[in-house]
Design goal:
heterodimer; A: alpha/beta; 6 helices; 15 strands; 31% strand; B: 322 residues; alpha/beta; five-stranded parallel sheet; 8 helices; 28% helix; elongated
Chain lengths: 248, 322
């Protein structure tokens, strides 16, 4: 089984978000970049398939040379080979089109991409990739088992979950639940040493047309001060929620 | 060239977001000088969309489209887009819709923008405001493609009445076997309980509750309020609650009218995930908990003392006000 895990390079979840150049660019100053958490759950599930079912795990990233530390970390965790498409990620469709080229040339059985990146939150790359490559697709995936050409996939739905039967080749949108937080792997020294020798192929992008672009950013308006209510005066809280906030 | 809106339903009834997306579609149609056509699946009361500005409803009645199937529903909507020659498509931001909208965009080479919080500032160029960076910021996104697909955030634009004469017709799409290449085997869903995505009120517990055995009072509070229950990341990581209840940056986003956080200190990732909620109440023993800075109302106190009292008082209140 040949698996491709698509990785996005995103600001760490603890990052403070600021904008620069008259609020037209994300300020990367002082920001630590990491593997997108939704991708990391998928990567970890791919490592499980490698250990238990002998899968070969490839990773692909759309990004410039600055993403290579993140790619090396993915290789140190245990992926076999990496591909970097040498262009800055722009809109979701362009990213999906770049990845689709890799998928078409690689004959992958399973493609795992996070259900969304935690920076631009487009949440569109997995579905677009499946459509462009004519593969089956299950999003918000919280469980997957593969037996031969068949896949049993569990997806999260609003208020519950749904079990789906489908076949390979398949694209899934991964998220927490695919593996548990405690299953996530931290690279060890041996992994880090081995990662240096693993193949990282840099390929040049294809031409794509931009469908959307961010023209301006804005930070949320700061909240006014909290109204503190005495713990012995619950009536006051109910009164405020009913008469002032009008939410009960 | 009408604006096409996908109005979601469940068991023959529109979801709340159907009326919000229809209201949004009406405002966009007004700006573009056209009307709104809705596509719905197996809905009995399609006429109700007329209250929110919809002029035409295409109701799908095919037996094999009774329950949601990502690709089959996407292909059906593509059929409707073609029939209507629609170039502006409005959808919700539910999990199901977020799965199918990218398929539409990839097929049509369209520009898809999810998590949109307000009507377009301009339609030429077409610019919408949406949340980004997991609710830590907003982006103004310009759609340059001919086909524009807008995913409206839950509970951000609101439901707006616009009485319109509505015409309902059956719609039969042309689908192939390939559209049903994923098959639903089992749906496991709690019935009769509010979900985090749809609930007006969400009650959430954190590590301050000390253990899963103490969730009874959280559920009781949720029941009195008709609220959904949620939890912080550590609570789901510890296995005290199912991960489907985890709200925050790597969990579910919350955009309810009221969010009550009990024993949750308010890590930056959690605050980001719940920031779209309109009113936030915090109950915490630690007056320095960061959540107090992000909340509207706060009680510094022990949840084991405050929550049972709150439940009692709310029962009295509900008794008088219903």
């Amino acid at each position: 089984m040949k698996i491709l895990v698509c990785i996005s390079n995103v600001p760490d979840t603890t990052s403070k978000i600021n904008f620069t150049d008259d609020n037209t660019k994300f300020d990367t100053n002082g920001v630590q970049f990491v593997i997108n958490p939704n991708d990391e759950f998928g990567l970890t599930r791919a490592m499980w398939f490698k250990e238990k079912q002998g899968a070969t795990v490839y990773v692909a990233t759309v990004g410039g040379p600055q993403t290579e530390p993140t790619i090396r970390k993915v290789l140190a965790i245990g992926a076999d080979e990496a591909i970097r498409i040498n262009t800055e990620p722009t809109d979701g469709l362009s990213v999906a089109q770049q990845l689709a080229e890799v998928v078409k040339n690689g004959a992958y059985d399973l493609v795992i991409a996070g259900k969304e990146s935690i920076d631009y939150n487009g949440g569109m790359v997995p579905g677009m990739l499946a459509t462009l490559t004519d593969m089956n697709f299950v999003n918000t995936c919280i469980g997957i088992e593969i037996d031969g050409n068949s896949a049993t996939v569990i997806r999260e739905i609003d208020g519950g979950k749904e079990t789906i039967a489908t076949t390979l080749p398949l694209v899934i949108g991964g998220q927490k639940g695919l593996v548990q937080e405690s299953d996530l792997k931290i690279p060890n020294m041996r992994g880090i040493m081995m990662a240096r020798k693993k193949v990282l192929t840099v390929i040049e992008p294809i031409d794509t047309a931009l469908t959307t672009k961010e023209v301006k950013f804005e930070k949320p308006i700061a909240k006014g001060a909290v109204k503190l209510i005495d713990a012995n005066n619950i009536d006051e809280l109910i009164n405020l929620l009913h008469n002032e906030a009008k939410v009960i | 060239m009408s604006v096409l809106v996908y109005t979601e339903s469940e068991n023959g009834k529109f979801k709340k977001n159907a009326f919000e997306t229809a209201s949004y579609a009406y405002e966009v149609a007004q700006k573009l000088g056209t009307t709104v056509t809705a596509i719905s699946f197996h809905v009995k009361d399609n006429e109700s969309l007329g209250e929110y500005g919809v002029s035409n409803v295409l109701n799908v009645t095919a037996e094999n489209l009774k329950t949601f199937n990502t690709k089959a529903y996407a292909s059906t909507i593509l059929n409707a887009i073609e029939k209507e020659e629609a170039s502006t498509i409005i959808v919700s931001s539910s999990l199901d819709t977020k799965s199918l909208a990218p398929i539409l965009a990839a097929k049509l080479k369209g520009g898809y923008v999810p998590n949109v919080v307000s009507a377009p500032e301009n339609t030429s160029p077409f610019v919408v405001k949406r949340t980004a960076f997991s609710n830590k910021g907003f982006a103004f996104t310009q759609i340059d493609a001919d086909t524009k697909i807008i995913g409206v955030s839950n509970n951000a634009y609101g439901v707006k009445e616009n009485m319109t004469d509505v015409n309902v017709s059956d719609f039969a799409p042309t689908l192939s076997d390939a559209d049903f290449s994923t098959k639903s085997i089992e749906i496991d869903k709690v019935v009769g309980k509010a979900t985090i995505a749809d609930a007006d009120i969400v009650v959430s517990g954190g590590r301050g509750l000390k253990g899963p055995e103490n969730w009874g009072m959280i559920e009781e509070l949720a029941e009195v309020l008709g609220a959904a229950t949620a939890c912080s990341k550590p609570v789901s990581d510890l296995g005290w609650r199912p991960h489907g209840e985890h709200v925050g940056q790597t969990g579910k986003p919350v955009a309810s009218n009221l969010y009550i956080a009990i024993g949750i200190s308010g890590a930056i990732q959690h605050l980001a995930g719940v920031s779209a909620s309109k009113v936030k109440v915090v109950i915490n023993t630690d007056p320095d908990a960061p959540f107090f800075k992000a909340a509207d109302y706060g009680i510094v106190g022990d949840a084991f003392d405050v929550v049972p009292k709150l439940v009692e008082k709310l029962k009295e209140f509900k008794g008088q006000n219903v």
